[in-house]
Write a structure and sequence with these properties.
The protein is an alpha+beta fold. It has two domains: 18-122, no CATH class; 133-171, no CATH class. It has five helices and five strands. A five-stranded antiparallel sheet has the order 3-2-1-4-5. A hairpin with a 5-residue loop joins strand 4 (93-105) and strand 5. The radius of gyration is 19 Å and the shape is elongated.
Length: 172
């Protein structure tokens, strides 16, 4: 029996797109991809259009093209892990899905419907669990990380962790 071939498999695209997830399904490949590298890039050529700047994820899986991230997906990763430094996402496994509600503008009058969304994130033990506030504070490497943790806390927890936060700030 011959292996299936998605009719758009040979399209000319350097970056992961929603149709790639459909191709993964047809070919029996996983939509869980492990981040190998993350870069902040400028003036990226995306199918003949220049994107001025973006965070681009590169994956360990050879069949997966790099992904130009968007705000919705990066916020989902941050919210599920508590990690604001995208470089620290290297080694995380991300499960993606195709969402018909995504709309990507390709011109002033045209949009493409459907796109990639983050379903879940596995930190693979590389990040402290969100619930473990004390350890997250201890492992913070910047004031920005501490500020992000602080903003997540309710008023009662801010009182509880205030001294630990102030002590950690002095070490940064």
């Amino acid at each position: 029996m011959r292996k299936p071939i998605h009719y758009l498999k040979a399209r000319n695209s350097n970056f992961l797109a929603g149709v790639d997830l459909k191709i993964f399904d047809l070919e029996g490949k996983s939509k869980i991809l492990t981040i190998k590298d993350i870069r902040y890039e400028k003036n990226i050529n995306v199918n003949g259009r220049i994107k001025p700047k973006a965070i681009v994820m590169y994956f360990e899986e050879e069949y997966a093209k790099p992904l130009i991230t968007n705000t919705t997906n990066t916020e989902k990763i941050k919210n599920q892990t508590g990690v604001i430094d995208a470089v620290k996402w290297i080694g995380f496994s991300i499960e993606f899905f195709f969402d018909l509600n995504v709309q990507m503008k390709i011109s002033k009058t045209e949009s493409i419907k459907g796109g990639i969304r983050v379903k879940s994130v596995n930190t693979n033990g590389l990040a402290v669990a969100l619930k473990d506030i004390k350890t997250r504070i201890e492992h913070a490497t910047s004031k920005a990380e501490l500020m992000d943790i602080w903003e997540e806390l309710n008023e009662q927890d801010q009182i509880l962790y205030k001294d630990q936060m102030n002590a950690k700030i002095l070490t940064l």
